[in-house]
Design a protein that fits this description.
alpha/beta, 7-stranded mixed sheet, globular
């Protein structure tokens, strides 16, 4: 598949310039066909029979392997979840933070990380990054660390600006445990978890899978307390409820994940081309430059695949007007900005429609 062919793989692109994978990615024909076929197979073979269960477990294992490979992790260190938010909750509920502890994050985090952080009872220290150059992010975050800091918890790519946070440098500089929200990075930019402790993945954004799907990487699973248990996280259980957890990060697996969703995600992972990161970066820069000729662009060059810019009018109204014109972007409440998401499926025509409709 070439970049020219990619646009035709997504039915939504026949009607819209779809520039909102930062919320939900587009579904391809192959993904939708896999979901339909899996639903048909399940119903024909009986949802509950031996063959069904064996097939479902094999499907979970294949998707786990693919997601782990995507971020450079061993498969036994990856849990299947419903979202990045669930992954954040799993880590923070089991980490054991208290009122005497501090967590350092940024001033631009998504509620899916911020809300779980505040439930821990720890003091949350915010590093200002949104209104500073990307090159100053490392210094800003390091400046918030104190002797009471027990955890760094922040995004790899900031959801409002597309700014890439130097998570690996933070790990090397501090040696502290680090929880990374990968909602806007995994499958958008190259990711290798390396020495990072926890990394969450969204299946329904840049991976272009159906919702709700996600994953959680845990470098040392046995060191993180299990705060939740499901049928899939338990290896064996006694009548009184005592149980042996599954090995590795599988002990943090969510409960039932619909097989049609897993089949759709598997197809999406299979379909993603080798050149996706280069193409997404190229289209992001073209988007930023084109918008910059007429509008105040917030996002810096050569960051993630999100381009935020100051809306010409009221952002929510502008987003609604763009939708009516066949362009889907996101307004960012409280900022005055609109956000365009550029993926490997984005074409120059999509960008022309965005600028022209504005």
């Amino acid at each position: 598949m070439t970049p020219e062919d990619a646009h035709g793989e997504f039915p939504v692109l026949e009607r819209f310039a779809y520039l909102n994978a930062g919320t939900l990615g587009p579904l391809s024909r192959a993904t939708m066909a896999a979901m339909a076929e899996r639903t048909r197979w399940d119903n024909e073979h009986g949802r509950g029979g031996k063959e069904f269960f064996e097939s479902m477990l094999a499907l979970r294992a294949r998707v786990r392997e693919q997601l782990a490979a995507l971020i450079g992790a061993p498969a036994d260190r990856l849990a299947l979840t419903s979202s990045t938010t669930e992954g954040c909750n799993i880590v923070l509920a089991g980490f054991g933070l208290g009122p005497e502890d501090e967590v350092v994050t940024t001033s631009s985090e998504h509620p899916g990380l911020l809300a779980p952080l505040h439930l821990t009872g720890a003091r949350v220290r915010l590093a200002e990054v949104a209104h500073r150059p990307a090159a100053e992010a490392l210094e800003a975050i390091l400046g918030q660390i104190t002797p009471r800091t027990r955890l760094l918890a922040l995004s790899h790519v900031i959801w409002t600006t597309g700014q890439v946070i130097p998570v690996h440098e933070l790990k090397r500089e501090t040696g502290l445990p680090i929880l990374v929200d990968g909602a806007q990075s995994a499958a958008a930019i190259p990711v290798d978890v390396g020495d990072l402790d926890f990394y969450t993945v969204s299946g329904q954004k840049w991976l272009c899978g159906p919702e709700p799907l996600g994953a959680l990487y845990v470098r040392e699973p046995e060191a993180l307390r299990m705060a939740f248990a499901t049928y899939f996280s338990v290896q064996s259980i006694e009548r009184d409820g005592t149980f042996v957890p599954r090995d590795g990060a599988l002990r943090f697996d969510s409960g039932w994940i619909p097989t049609a969703g897993l089949a759709g995600l598997e197809a999406a992972l299979d379909q993603a081309p080798d050149w996706r990161f280069e193409r997404a970066a190229e289209m992001t820069e073209r988007c930023r430059v084109a918008l910059g000729e007429r509008f105040d662009v917030v996002s810096e060059p050569h960051q993630g695949t999100l381009v935020s810019f100051v809306a010409p009018g009221e952002p929510a109204e502008d987003a609604a007007r763009l939708y009516d014109a066949g362009v889907i972007v996101r307004d960012l409440p409280g900022t005055g900005w609109l956000r365009a998401s550029c993926g490997w499926w984005t074409s120059e025509d999509d960008l022309d429609r965005l600028v022209g409709s504005l």
